[in-house]
Structures are given as C-alpha cells and as structure tokens.
Amino acid sequence: MGGFEEKGDRVRSCNSFAIVALVIGLCFFMCAGNAGRLAEPDFGHKIVGEWEWVESFGGFAGEHRTPETEGYTKTYVFRPDHTFLHYRDGTLVFSAEYRIVEKVVWKKDRAKVLEIEEMTDKVIGFDGNDTLGLTGHCADCFSEVFVRIGSK
Fold first, then answer.
1. What b/e readout covers 75-112, taking b as 16+ CB neighbours within 10 angstroms?
2. Assigned fold of 37-148
3. pLDDT digits over 128-142, tens only?
4. Model-level pTM?
5. Mean pLDDT for the chain?
C-alpha cells in the first residue's frame, strides 16, 4: 500500500502544480489583455476643450441628476498638455494630469478610457464632436453627459 500512497501523493502534487500554473496563466492572460495602450492621437484631441455637465444617471437606484436637481454646475477642462481641471460653480476644485488609453472593460470589450490621477477611470464616448459621455465601468456606476462650451 505504500506505493499506492506515494503515487497518490505525486498525483496530488501534480494536480496542485497544474492548478497553480493555471491560475498564474489566467492572471497573466487577464492582466495582459487589460494592459492600457495609449489611444490613437485623434481621439485624444477630440476631448480637448471645455465641457459643461448636463446630466448624470445610473447608480444602484437608477438616479437622474442635473445641475438643477443638485444645485451646482460642473465644468471639466481638458488641455492639450494633458492637464485636467474640474470646476464647480466656476471655482477650481481639482486639477491633475489625464491620459486616454485603450483597455478591456466589462470583461471583454475594448474601449477608450479616461484616466485621471486620484479619480475613478471612465469609459469615454462621443455623440458627434460636442457631446461627451463618461461612464464608470461597473454595473451600477454613473454615466455623465457633458456638452462642449461654445457649441450651444
């Protein structure tokens, strides 16, 4: 019986090794697939400018928020030098560096993602040149809609 136990130990050892190798392989595959690549230059230029917040919707309760319901305005400014400025009611409340990368989001889809230091990453979408959509990439994140200032 000693030989059977030895063989069983080797099988368990091989199974453990296979599981560890599989987990490492999956982690490598998922991380490699999610590695951010800089988005093409034309896309990055499209976001440059001043954007006024129009509405937000989503969240766990499916809320709808506007400057009127919240009692404040919000303006985002994206400069060509990758400086991001966030104004609330005309007062600067935050500035940082931003970049736009292409990433895997929602487990399989590639999308352009706005990365701003100390803020949650947002998936970017445009409706024409003058409407910007920013959406968190989670099931109950908010989507925000902005219009380009001067396009009204």
1. bbbbeeeeebbbbeeeeeeeeeebebbbbbbeeeeebb
2. Lipocalin (2.40.128)
3. 989 999 998 777 788
4. 0.70
5. 77
Q: Is the model more confident about 53 or about 102? A: 53
The domain locations on the chain are 1-35, 37-148
Q: What is the pLDDT of residue 43?
A: 62
The answer to whether the CB of 96 falls within 8 A of the CB of 90 is: no
Q: What share of the chain is helix, strand, coil (3-state, %, to 5)?
A: 30, 45, 25
Q: Where are the alpha helices (DSSP H) in 39-92?
A: 41-46, 67-70
Dihedral class, residue 106 (left if φ above 0, else alpha if ψ from -120 to 50, else beta): left
Quick one: how far is CA 59 from the chain centroid? 15
The residue with greater pLDDT, 121 or 6, is 121
Tell me the CA distances in angstroms from 95 to 24, 117, 120, 145, 148, one per residue in order. 38, 9, 14, 20, 19
